[in-house]
Amino acid sequence: MKNRSISFSPPDISELEIQEVCETLRSGWITTGPRVKEFENRLAEYFHTNKVVCLNSATASEELILRLLGIGEGDEVLVPAYTYTSSASAAIHVGAVVKFIDSQLDSCEMDYDAMEAAITEKTKAIIPVDLGGIVCDYDRIFEAAEDKKNLFTASNNIQNAIGRVAIVADCAHAMGASRHGKMAGEIADFSAFSFHAVKNLTTAEGGAATWRNIPGLDDQAVYHQFQLYSLHGQSKDALAKTQLGSWEYDIVGPWYKCNMTDIMGAIGLRQLERYPQLLTRRKEIIGKYDAVCDKLGVKHLVHYGEDFQSSGHLYLARVPGISCEQRNEIITQMAKRGIACNVHYKPLPMMTAYKKYGWDIKDFPNAYHYFEEEITLPLHTKLSDEDVEYVTANFEDVVKKYL
Ligand SMILES: *Cc1c(COP(=O)(O)O)cnc(C)c1O
Questions:
Q1: Where, by residue number, is the active site (predicted)?
Q2: Of ligand 1's atoms, which has the minimum distance to the CA of residue 195?
């Protein structure tokens, strides 16, 4: 078979996005303005939520959600050990203590019994991660938070409206995913999405925060507080200041700078229009990968079922019984054939930053075992059918001697 070059996750940018960006540049308004507002409204329709706030990343979105919830020093936040660093680092930025939770056996989903057992009087939030684009078992997570309600004391009005530990979803992978007929975004109390260049829908960098319908929560007030946090605590944004004679503003807090620009909004608007087709294509590719893995006896995430639809973000495969060294050999051999594979994830307790906090991977045996056998295949919408065939044929050829 002739060698091909298959990258891991290149952005899928069409002429539509390019034109919209050019129009934005010519329009005279390039930072947060009409296109970001339009993108926010379209996203809220898509997520079935009342409001969306666009920001410059999922990490910033998660951080601002935690600030809005009044979470900080003295509080604890529960985070799966098996995720990307920003699920945990945002909690550290606000001054909270992160408590890592191991995975279920043979799964990359949190061990919900261990999660429930870890809830104390200090616990203020749980950060479930919809890994690979598959929505977590929020029924179980909400149940755990409800069961431990008696330990919870609210420290601001939003916490009070929620009335228990807040569920703040890391939906970086989950744009467009659903479970029990509900979209990622309308399930958890608050959700943070990523539009980073490798994600399903991209604005180059970018992210968004949204929240479900919470009785007693003033959506406009929450939206306004996000605006303040993300734009210096300035009482008027740049667009409002262009109104005739309306130069004067106040600074109500010494806050942050993480707003989305209209150039990013322009990319997002056009990506969103194309997004249903992109999801369909991901599903097709996953079907082909599943067929080969099932034939070989390679385990993989299950992205689609009767009552759930994944966003098909990542194809996590596991070769039973292999060691880390063998996994790395497979990745190297795939790379020699021009195919970029990856590992999702090296558990956070193995990373230098978290080891310094005293975490030890020995306490997370399930996360470690999953990591040992895990290989992520390239999954994106720039893959042609021939590319997909090339990946599956080579994967089969490389992996068969490890089975
Ligand atoms: C990409 C990613 C993030 C961070 O997204 P940014 O927009 O880059 O901040 C957070 N969590 C997970 C699981 C991710 O994969």
A1: 199 (proton acceptor)
A2: 7
- For residues 262 and 328, membership in a common domain is answered with no
* Closest ligand 1 atom to 196 CA: 7
User: In terms of residue numbers, what domain contains 247?
Assistant: 15-267
Check whether residue 190 and residue 327 sit in a common domain: no
Instruction: Return the axis-axis angle of helices 34-47 and 262-296, rounded to nearest 10°.
Output: 40
- Helix and strand numbers, DSSP H then E, in the chain: 14, 14
Answer yes or no: pTM beyond 0.85. Answer: yes
Distance, first Cα to last Cα, the chain: 23
pLDDT of the residue at 245: 84
The answer to whether residue 56 scores a pLDDT higher than 80 is: yes
> How confident is the model over 321-373, as pLDDT tens digits?
999 999 999 999 999 999 999 999 999 999 999 999 999 999 999 999 999 99
For residue 324 the two structure tokens come to 């880390």
- pLDDT bin (cut points 50, 70, 90) of residue 241 is confident
Are 299 and 341 in a shared domain?
yes
- Which residues lie with the beta carbon below 6 Å from any ligand 1 atom? 57-59, 83-84, 86-87, 129, 170, 172-173, 194, 196, 207
pLDDT at site 243:
83
370 closest CA partner among 114, 81, 85, 130: 81
Query: Do 311 and 175 contact (CB within 8 A), yes or no?
Result: yes
Separation of CA 59 and ligand 1 centre (Å): 6
* pLDDT above 80: residue 1: no
**Known catalytic residue at 199:** yes
The rounded Å distance from CA 291 to ligand 1 centre is 29
Task: Check 122, 199, 236, 283 and give the catalytic one.
Answer: 199
The alpha carbon of 115 and the centre of ligand 1 are apart by a number of angstroms equal to: 22
Distance CA 357, CA 176 (A): 35
- Overall number of domains in the chain: 2
Query: Is residue 1 a part of any domain in this protein?
Result: no
